[in-house]
């Protein structure tokens, strides 16, 4: 069974719609941010969704793990959210912002990235999350010297605390670091690789096929840990940019921009490519979030009922 | 936020019941309110709690007059929250204990002219100001529209109001 996941926001319920996004910036106490996570987990459980990406800024920079746990309110809510996720068998992961770049040439940016990743790993530890709960990173750094960026990432990765290192997974991107770049990083550091189907479509210099690319990424995960895979589809519709006067401007979508809902036929192609491969979880990256997941389930029943039973 | 003027109209508010004057006094003086975990409304999302006063409040009965900002939450047993009631039948049950800011008084109370059995009502601050009766507190479509504003990357086929279409003028038919 392949579990489908929702990234961060929930659109299917009025009260949850604005919860869970940029809460740390708003100065909300960490206990309240965690209460909102609890409510999201209850919603996901009710819809049989077993995979959730926590907001990457759920903890603010000033929320050091020790200070949070020293407050009883925070400790209570970490325990409550963690227990809820375990009882509902919901996998939790985090995706660091692009600015959390261990491969950058700027030492101060790299130092900040190390702190952020450390905080996100501490968050998963405080929730009592298992080994499958990872912090997903991009390599970061300039594309004109990818080898140097990979070496910097590897060196900084080795200097992180073991408790942080074991949480990290790395994802190839859509313009600079392709799948083979992160596979090289895996060979140096052992860090598992998150496969992203849209990124492969957008940046695939080796012209490798979908099934082979997927199998190479899945093989980087340690035994007993389900790999994480990302799936999204290219937006093709225009944006409307409001103007102070007159009609809005029509903007074409950027390459790599996510669609509102997901193209079911591209998803069916991914499932067909996964035949015979070990099971994995699929984080859906769509603007319609949980609504896109629910629609995808319906689409699978309609267009590929023989595959629908493989997906939860 | 300590002033009503600072509260966004779309801020989520949960209306809760304070059955006895002592309950509201605890909110005012000690700055906390409890909700049983097992019977909490789902989802329990609120930046503010507002308080429905029952028949026990005399001239102030059957109305919502006050609200307070939610500052933090923790989970405690009832006997920890109310140590003077160790033998209460629910002494061992878990409660959310919400730490609250100062009580703020609404410019106009929201009365309940007919509805008496109020439990929890999810609403918004804007609706708390607009409502002329507790039954109107259920969330306003106006505030929902504001929340939806940035959710979708509205394309050229997005549905716009007639006023917007007339203002744009040059938009093609079906645009």
Order of helices and strands of chain B: EHEEEHEEEHHH
**Shape estimate of chain B:** globular
- Percent of residues of chain B in helical segments? 10-25%
Largest sheet of chain B: 7 strands, mixed
What oligomeric arrangement do these chains adopt? heterodimer
- Unreliable segments of chain B (pLDDT under 50, ≥5 consecutive)? 168-175
Strand content of chain A: 5-15%
**Structural class of the secondary structure composition of chain B?**
alpha+beta
3D architecture notes:
The complex is a heterodimer of chains A (312) and B (175). Chain A is an alpha/beta fold and 312 residues long. Chain A has 12 helices and 10 strands. Chain A has helices spanning 30-46, 65-70, 72-87, 107-126, 146-159, 162-165, 179-189, 197-202, 210-218, 264-273, 289-303, 305-308; strands at residues 3-7, 51-54, 91-95, 135-137, 168-171, 193-196, 228-231, 239-241, 249-251, 281-284. In chain A, the strands form 2 sheets. An 8-stranded parallel barrel of chain A has the order 1-2-3-4-5-6-7-10, surrounded by 5 helices. Chain B has helices at residues 21-30, 78-81, 125-130, 141-148, 162-168; strands at 12-18, 32-36, 48-53, 63-77, 94-100, 104-111, 121-124. Chain B is globular, with a radius of gyration of 20 Å. The N and C termini of chain B lie far apart (42 Å). The A-B interface holds A 11, 13-19, 29, 31-32, 35-36, 39-40, 42-43, 72-73, 76-77, 80, 235, 237-240, 246-248, 250, 257, 260, 287-288 and B 10, 12, 42-45, 70-76, 96, 99, 122, 139, 144, 147-148, 151-158, 168-171.
